[in-house]
Each structure stands twice: as structure tokens, then as C-alpha cells.
Write a structure and sequence with these properties.
globular; alpha+beta; Trna Endonuclease, Chain: A, domain 1; 20% strand; three-stranded mixed sheet
């Protein structure tokens, strides 16, 4: 593992709790070059309710998302928690979180049903 890849894992371990008003102590960060999910919530119900995702970090210019998702799912199966697989990836200045279609659509459905106007909170207004 390169130092840049490890720094990316550390970055993801920092930005997730910051964005969710949680702490870094609420999340596990796997050791360098050790098997398992790169970032995962601690096994406590109050944390899993806020972030039920297992994150595999990939900082690669050319990423095979199919292989990365298979790896993430294997790691989740070995972890034995019921986590939702997500791939965090970065290429140049673009950061992505990749998740399965049915999860994405379920999230949008829940947002639409429970948070009217949610779109306005995440899409910046265009300057005229």
C-alpha cells in the first residue's frame, strides 16, 4: 500500500464523522495492509443506526469498480455485521462514494418522503 493510499483511508476516516456530527472514535480504521473494511462504524447500535456502511477506500486513477465492490462485499461478509457496501474513491480532485442501485434509490425515496426540499440543501444555487 502506498503512503498516498493510506493517507486517503485516514482522510475518509476523518471526513465521515465530521460530516455526520460524530467522532472518529465512532469508527474503526483498519491497520495498514491488514485485511478487512478500511473504515467501518463501531459495533454499537446508536452508531450503526447513523452509519450502516462498510467502506473500502480506493485511491487509484484506474479503478475496476466491480472488483472493488466484490472485495467490499467479501470484507463485509467476514465482518459479520449487516453493513451496506460502499467504495470511496478519489482520482485527481474528484471524490466519489459508489453504492448499489437499490440502496441509492431507497435513500432517495426516504429523503423524498421525509425531508421535503432536501435537494435545495445539497445543490448550490447558480450564480447569475
Amino acid at each position: 500500500m502506498s503512503d498516498k493510499s493510506r493517507l486517503y483511508e485516514i482522510r475518509i476516516h476523518s471526513i465521515i464523522p465530521e460530516a455526520l456530527n460524530m467522532t472518529k472514535q465512532d469508527f474503526d480504521l483498519v491497520g495498514k495492509s491488514k485485511p478487512g473494511l478500511d473504515v467501518a462504524p463501531r459495533n454499537r447500535p446508536e452508531i450503526l443506526d447513523k452509519f450502516p456502511f462498510g467502506v473500502e477506500c480506493k485511491r487509484q486513477n484506474k479503478l475496476n469498480i466491480w472488483d472493488a465492490m466484490r472485495q467490499t462485499k467479501r470484507n463485509i461478509e467476514n465482518d459479520r455485521r449487516e453493513l451496506i457496501p460502499i467504495i470511496a474513491t478519489q482520482c485527481r480532485n474528484l471524490n466519489l462514494m459508489i453504492l448499489e442501485e437499490q440502496i441509492f434509490l431507497a435513500m432517495v425515496r426516504v429523503l423524498n418522503e421525509n425531508c421535503p426540499g432536501w435537494k435545495d440543501q445539497i445543490i448550490p444555487e447558480k450564480e447569475e
